[in-house]
């Protein structure tokens, strides 16, 4: 994907675009079917704590929010674990910890996993890498992490990538014709994160230029 051509730019008004995390808006396929099956089979999990693993933008947050809605789970991040009251975080019997491999306090995570087991609460940990590879200096925590069941999400196939492009555009009230969808699916990196960035760039450029989102505009932004 080539860089956008450099030219004087008008600033487009930055607006928030809500992304739906509803179950019916999750696009399933071979790249994520095992992870979706794990979320859907709750509370019949193989263990009280599980991990969702996949690249940036692969759908981990969508699945985690789906599970949080079903389980009444609270949501936090690994960086916040040492700042929250762990028993209170588990008060509903379920907790999502996003970005679990980043900035985690070893003792806080170890305490959380142990307390969840003692209280028969459920944990869903999301990360880009498998728990066995997370850096830790606590041998007991390393053992707990290696034992976590893992559901992996992979890069999307062509059909899923095209569907994601259409969905992300719809979240911004953009209607893309087949020419735009086809061009993007073959000129961006095959990832959900790249699709999200591409739709944002197209939307912003169309607003700046006061032009419709067309294949020609997509080609101007994503040649190569």
Question: CATH H-level name of the largest domain... which superfamily?
Answer: P-loop containing nucleotide triphosphate hydrolases
CATH topology of the largest domain: Rossmann fold
CATH class membership of the largest domain: Alpha Beta
Largest beta-sheet details: 5 strands, parallel
Quaternary status:
single chain
Envelope shape: elongated
- Given the structure, what is the number of helices? 9
Uncertain segments of ≥5 residues (pLDDT<50)? 1-15
How would you write the strand order of the largest sheet?
2-3-4-1-5
Distance between the first and last residues' Cα: 6 Å
Query: What's the architecture of the largest domain in CATH terms?
Result: 3-Layer(aba) Sandwich
Structural class: alpha/beta
- DSSP strand (E) fraction? 5-15%
What's the structural domain tally? 2
Order of helices and strands: HEHEHEHEHEHHHH
Task: Give the fraction of residues assigned to helices.
Answer: 40-55%
Describe the structure.
By secondary structure, the protein is α/β, with parallel strands linked by helices. The chain has helices at 33-40, 60-71, 86-89, 106-118, 139-146, 158-171, 178-187, 192-209, 215-221, and strands at 49-53, 74-77, 94-98, 122-127, 150-152. A five-stranded parallel sheet has the order 2-3-4-1-5. Strand 3, helix 4 (106-118) and strand 4 (122-127) form a beta-alpha-beta unit. The model is unreliable at 1-15 (pLDDT under 50).
Short précis:
By secondary structure, this protein is an alpha/beta fold. The protein contains 9 helices and 5 strands. α1 packs parallel to α2, α6 packs across α7 and α7 runs parallel beside α9 (215-221).
